[in-house]
């Protein structure tokens, strides 16, 4: 059966990514969307689109009936579920099969088996795949669980059988806490998954999360596409992923890849899958779970192997054999992915919603940007606040880290808070460079991120301000660069809710901030400006502050005068004494802080007196034109 048209039962970057491969394969695509996604990128990119319903997930992306109806109306051959949503839902695969529509995913039995942490572990133990020592039986009485925890030995991890995304997981450090933590895990599991069963595991104290990409076809072939290290996590959510895993011995690596293939064979799997292992400080590794779908981080495996995993998924779903044998799959170089989120790392990573006023992501060779949103789109409360995945390839890990930092530092997002600075900072920590980040490092408060408004930062901003066309910096034969007329630059900046004043002067080829602290910006320093918001990048730390909002001030109405809202230069005076003007007419154009401002008449008026002329420098609050409303 050849697939000619695919409905993508997903949204955002993964829908966009799947459409890209379909285009290359000459397969038609159908996008589906909920109300907030009416104008989304994935809808615009697909050949056809189908509205599902409201923002409520049960009414749209999780509604099996509506998706089947859409698939039938648009006469698709297959449905690709992406990741999340219905990608691991056995009932969805079965419902599609009933209507003779191909599910581009794992067989329903595998979805069901691996969807239960207890059944998955029991299966893997039978297949001789190493598992974390623990308890995964049906008896869920508190006494039995407490007893099992004692036998495993503290610390113990409680996990929801139906769990995912770290929900329903609790670490218990001592026996006296067990009953309370169990209750809390059960409650969370019941709420999130409608199932309060749990398993217990030995809590690994210095864990690395290493997973293997596997692939199987309908003819019994299974291969791996090497491993990924996803240890950089926050609250069990991956933040940075890379391939291959650094610091893994050849022997351990071979054992792990073989174990992953064995695990996949043990369940007669078909399609793309991931075997997740947890690795202890002594290099022993254990099966944690299998993800029966494409992963968010699949791109890093693609970049080191040159394989398009979505293309393979489609081929395998069509019944074709795997395009390559194990011996034909090679890896080359190193790849890193970061997840760029709309969240505030300085405020407990609170998701940040709102309009994306500007999204500027640096593109370059060997850099992939997967994104479902861009400038003028919004981050809403309805969906995951991921803005983009940035993926970089280089010949080795060190170069790859450097290249990723460069990409991050050259990128900027305005309108919402993001973790972009935090990501770059993480990549520059010794812990990351030495691959000593464990899955709990971030949650334990290591690697904190607290950028401040230092003289260096002010100097970089001043340099940016002064080196732009029309600026106040001039080249003086005798003295080199200097501020025009040796006028000190007065800066009023707002940082973390506080107002700061700085006087900047240029002396001895460096900036003097408030009379001290010489600093000369370096080539790695960057300054991103959007309206009155500023982001300065110095040593891979991103410092955010804002200027007074002159544009807002400029719109404060005064019918009797035109008043300079900020210090700056007059570019043009469009009126003279005695002129009659209408409300809304631009009377004065002025420039300061890299911005041009048009000052308009508030009401129909007669110009009484013009006090300045073009090129005059004026202070804030200066009356430029007197008016008499008519
Ligand atoms: P979920 O299905 O909720 O994502 P996982 O079983 O995949 O749960 O575990 C999520 C994360 O929790 C892992 O990536 C790892 O960081 C941590 N984790 C899981 N099991 C253990 C364990 N036994 N000891 C320590 N950390 C663990």
Detailed description of the structure:
- Helices cover 25% and strands 33% of the residues.
- A hairpin with a 2-residue loop joins strand 27 and strand 28.
- The radius of gyration is 29 Å and the shape is elongated.
- By secondary structure, it is an alpha+beta fold.
- The relative contact order is 0.07.
- An 8-stranded antiparallel beta sheet has the order 14-13-10-11-12-15-22-20, with helices on both faces. The chain has a 5-stranded parallel beta sheet with strand order 3-2-1-4-5, sandwiched between helices.
- Helix 4 runs antiparallel to helix 5.
- The chain starts with a strand and ends with a strand.
- The protein has 5 domains: 5-104, 3-Layer(aba) Sandwich (Rossmann fold), CATH 3.40.50.20; 133-202, 2-Layer Sandwich (Dna Ligase, domain 1), CATH 3.30.1490; 333-449, ATP-grasp fold, B domain (D-amino Acid Aminotransferase, Chain A, domain 1); 455-546, no CATH class; 561-629, RNA polymerase II/Efflux pump adaptor protein, barrel-sandwich hybrid domain (OB fold (Dihydrolipoamide Acetyltransferase, E2P)).
- Bound molecules: adenosine-5'-diphosphate.
């Amino acid at each position: 059966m050849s697939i000619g048209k695919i409905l993508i039962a997903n949204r955002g970057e993964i829908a966009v990514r799947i459409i890209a491969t379909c285009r290359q394969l000459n397969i038609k695509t159908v996008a589906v969307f909920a109300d907030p996604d009416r104008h989304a990128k994935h809808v615009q990119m697909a050949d056809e689109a189908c509205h599902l319903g409201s923002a409520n997930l049960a009414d749209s992306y999780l509604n099996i009936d509506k998706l089947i109806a859409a698939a039938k109306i648009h006469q698709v051959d297959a449905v690709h579920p992406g990741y999340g949503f219905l990608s691991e839902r056995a009932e969805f695969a079965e419902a599609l099969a009933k209507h003779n529509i191909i599910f581009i995913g794992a067989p329903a039995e595998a979805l069901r088996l691996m969807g239960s942490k207890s059944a998955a572990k029991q299966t893997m133990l039978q297949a001789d795949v190493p598992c974390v020592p623990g308890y995964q039986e049906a008896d869920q009485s508190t006494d039995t669980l407490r007893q099992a925890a004692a036998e495993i030995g503290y610390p113990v991890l409680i996990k929801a059988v139906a769990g995912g995304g770290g929900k329903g997981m609790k670490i218990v450090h001592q026996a006296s806490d067990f009953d309370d933590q169990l209750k809390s895990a059960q409650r969370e599991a019941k709420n999130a998954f409608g199932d309060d069963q749990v398993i217990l595991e030995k809590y690994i104290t210095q864990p690395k999360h290493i997973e293997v990409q596997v692939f199987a076809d309908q003819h019994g072939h299974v291969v791996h596409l090497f491993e990924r290290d996803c240890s950089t996590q926050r609250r069990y959510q991956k933040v940075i992923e890379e391939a291959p895993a650094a610091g893994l011995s050849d022997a351990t690596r071979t054992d792990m890849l073989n174990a992953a293939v064995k695990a996949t064979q043990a369940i007669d799997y078909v399609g793309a899958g991931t075997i997740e292992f947890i690795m202890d400080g002594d290099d022993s590794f254990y099966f944690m779970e299998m993800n029966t779908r494409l992963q968010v981080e699949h791109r890093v495996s693609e970049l080191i192997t040159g394989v398009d995993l979505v293309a393979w998924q489609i081929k395998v779903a069509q019944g074709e054999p795997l395009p390559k044998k194990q011996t034909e799959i090679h890896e080359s170089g190193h790849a890193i992915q970061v997840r760029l989120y709309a969240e505030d790392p300085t405020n407990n990573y609170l998701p940040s919603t709102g309009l994306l006023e500007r999204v500027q992501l640096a593109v370059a060779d060997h850099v992939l940007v997967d994104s479902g949103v861009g400038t003028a789109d919004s981050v809403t409360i309805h969906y995951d606040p991921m803005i983009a995945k940035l993926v970089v390839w280089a010949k080795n890990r060190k170069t790859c880290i450097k290249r990723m930092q460069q990409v991050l530092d050259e990128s900027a997002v305005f309108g919402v808070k993001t973790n972009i600075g935090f990501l770059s900072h993480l990549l520059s920590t010794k812990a990351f460079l030495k691959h000593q980040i464990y899955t709990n490092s971030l949650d334990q408060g290591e690697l904190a991120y607290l950028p401040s408004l230092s003289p260096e930062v002010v100097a970089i901003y001043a340099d940016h301000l002064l080196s732009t066309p029309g600026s106040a910096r001039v080249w003086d034969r005798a003295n080199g660069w200097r501020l025009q007329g040796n006028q000190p630059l007065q800066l009023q900046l707002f940082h973390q809710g506080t107002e700061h004043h700085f006087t900047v002067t240029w002396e001895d080829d460096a900036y003097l901030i408030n009379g001290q602290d010489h600093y000369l910006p370096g080539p790695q320093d960057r300054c991103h400006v959007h309206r009155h918001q500023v982001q300065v990048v110095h040593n891979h730390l991103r410092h955010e502050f804002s200027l007074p909002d002159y544009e807002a001030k400029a719109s404060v109405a005064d019918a009797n005068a035109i008043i300079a809202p900020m210090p700056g230069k007059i570019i043009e005076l469009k009126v003279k004494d005695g002129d009659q003007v209408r409300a809304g007419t631009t009377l004065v154009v002025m420039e300061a802080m890299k911005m041009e401002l048009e000052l308009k008449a508030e009401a129909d008026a007669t110009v009484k007196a013009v006090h300045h002329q073009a090129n005059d420098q004026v202070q804030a609050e200066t009356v430029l034109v007197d008016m008499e409303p008519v």
